[in-house]
Amino acid sequence: xxxxxxxxxxxxxxxxxxxxxxxxxxxxxxxxxxxxxxxxxxxxxxxxxxxxxxxxxxxxxxxxxxxxxxxxxxxxxxxxxxxxxxxxxxxxxxxxxxxxxxxxxxxxxxxxxxxxxxxxxxxxxxxxxxxxxxxxxxxxxxxxxxxxxxxxxxxxxxxxxxxxxxxxxxxxxxxxxxxxxxxxxxxxxxxxxxxxxxxxxxxxxxxxxxxxxxxxxxxxxxxxxxxxxxxxxxxxxxxxxxxxxxxxxxxxxxxxxxxxxxxxxxxxxxxxxxxxxxxxxxxxxxxxxxxxxxxxxxxxxxxxxxxxxxxxxxxxxxxxxxxxxxxxxxxxxxxxxxxxxxxxxxxxxxxxxxxxxxxxxxxxxxxxxxxxxxxxxxxxxxxxxxxxxxxxxxxxxxxxxxxxxxxxxxxxxxxxxxxxxxxxxxxxxxxxxxxxxxxxxxxxxxxxxxxxxxxxxxxxxxxxxxxxxxxxxxxxxxxxxxxxxxxxxxxxxxxxxxxxxxxxxxxxxxxxxxxxxxxxxxxxxxxxxxxxxxxxxxxxxxxxxxxxxxxxxxxxxxxxxxxxxxxxxxxxxxxxxxxxxxxxxxxxxxx
Amino acid sequence: xxxxxxxxxxxxxxxxxxxxxxxxxxxxxxxxxxxxxxxxxxxxxxxxxxxxxxxxxxxxxxxxxxxxxxxxxxxxxxxxxxxxxxxxxxxxxxxxxxxxxxxxxxxxxxxxxxxxxxxxxxxxxxxxxxxxxxxxxxxxxxxxxxxxxxxxxxxxxxxxxxxxxxxxxxxxx
Lengths: 591, 173
Hints:
The complex is a heterodimer of chains A (591) and B (173). A 6-stranded parallel beta sheet of chain A has the order 3-2-4-5-7-6, sandwiched between helices. In chain A, strands 11-10-9-12-13-14 form a 6-stranded parallel beta sheet, sandwiched between helices. Chain A contains 24 helices and 20 strands. In chain A, α12 (282-285) links the parallel β12 and β13. Chain A is globular, with a radius of gyration of 25 Å. Chain A is of the alpha/beta class and 591 residues long. Chain B is an alpha+beta fold. Chain B contains 4 helices and 11 strands. In chain B, the strands form 3 sheets. In chain B, strands 5, 6, 7, 8 and 9 form a 5-stranded antiparallel beta sheet that branches. In chain B, strands 2-3-1-4 form a 4-stranded antiparallel beta sheet, covered by helices on one side. A two-stranded antiparallel sheet of chain B has the order 10-11. Chain A binds chain B through residues 118-119, 122-123, 126-127, 130, 147, 150-152, 179-185, 302-305, 307-309, 318, and chain B through 9-10, 14, 17-18, 21, 25, 55, 58-59, 62-63, 65-71, 169-173.
């Protein structure tokens, strides 16, 4: 039987087990949308912007572990989805994005809504395809899903010209894929693993530095066994939150620029760093030349390019985190004994002292403005029993959420790490909610970042995705303002947002529910009320505008040199800065 | 240090730009690049000349391996290799210079492949030093046009697949 390219597309996606596509139509993909419209196995969620479609696919993929799928049109549809592709590439999120393309005969003619989709996406995808012949379509789709979801996962783009979706051919979906230039290494070298085990046995001050790779490979159990068996403290990167229970006694929380005091001190003074599925990002290492000066480094990663990219590694192990950790545990189980606990007692005493010395903290005055940390802390305590999925945008609120929301299971944390994409959180939360209709999905956003994709409120309402969005409103791009406070003498260049829009009215305008929490004693009730509503909710929470996020390692600083609180003169300077912003005067002229 | 890297890649549209894009995107140098199909027409062979310290070269080799269209990467500096480059040099020749141009070509075992009343086109093949030496000698006569193929190289003995610093690098994700 002859099928059109569009029908082959749908049949192939069914074979891949795709249940949901996030998309937005346009001229050259209409045939595909038309076929999708006439079947029931795959649900199409119409987004209001292609960037939203891309982030929803990411949220879906992060929450489920299966590739997320986006379908968009050529030209502006493609350029709009680029941010999501770049985000997924940085954070290794498996998504497959299908883009429409002008008919093959018109490619290169500057046709209406033409863009070089493959050229545009090349540096921000793991791989991309232009399908020139309908006979290649099924094979290409198979390869796209295979590449996106194996090895180090990542985004793949498949560009389908209009005539390819219209032309007909016989359909046979391939059973297997062979790509001669693509053979990820899954098994780690046994010899290296043995070396690593020996180093772990001998270490007095070991630390586990774990990244998002642990989540992608599903290695949480193995990680926990390793940490518990050998009494090793666990530092998590932003991407790893949830990989190891945040409330576990061995957890030191997040490390890096806004990591906990104990996490950063511990990695700095360790004698053995066991990096698992992490990539020594500059937000983690700080000043590279002074990173972990006393430590030997074991690095387990599936991507060989991650190893020795930024940091010298003593024992590199290329392989899948889960398999390598399982093998490592097998070796350690036969050799580890009670001695390690004794050997590491001084180390744990030191770590506990660090924990006690500077725990994460904030002060919430009873009658003052709400502290953002208080809101997040309460949200955590009021929802932790429901194992919520938590999405964030990028900025101060993201860091506070990472600090105070102690996630306990993997695939519950949706955040943009590498690219730092404001506007990521809300659509990602919608993507996760679409996958898990009955779970509690929270989005914590800033008043700056929520505006970057707030159009998806329409998607949330129409598709009945009851995401609860808490907007930390401080009328600033808060993290920018914090840097201006600390490094630019308090000149608030383009960081003050004024009090717009009214988020309650915005939500209501879209047919969602808008709430506002004004004072500290309304926080608990406000959160409970929001949670009780089975519809999308925007909760606007005006907070202390000048709260800054600590600890903080200034960019290029060293991990043990953290700022722990505002410098004493800051409050006064902030007041002056705000006044001049509100009066619309240039800060420099009035100073 | 200069490294000559031999890259076998899929002979299909886009493969070359993936490699070129990798170098520009990550700030690696390309000093010379030459590509042509192999005996198996589904593959191309690229000879790439780059430079960097050991850490950068290690990254370049790993990053090249990571490109899905790349099938095999060999750092030729790890073994003996032969390298060649061809240049076509169009030399402006006044009547009194024509004999001198031929003499220079002769010394370098270069061929005159085209001739006009005011010019010779000289073809020279050799390693980089030789090509540069003849260019230098011909320059005083006046070089009108110069085209170089870029360097190509081949190992003098069978080589192992991609490695850096004598350590095998696993094929990338």
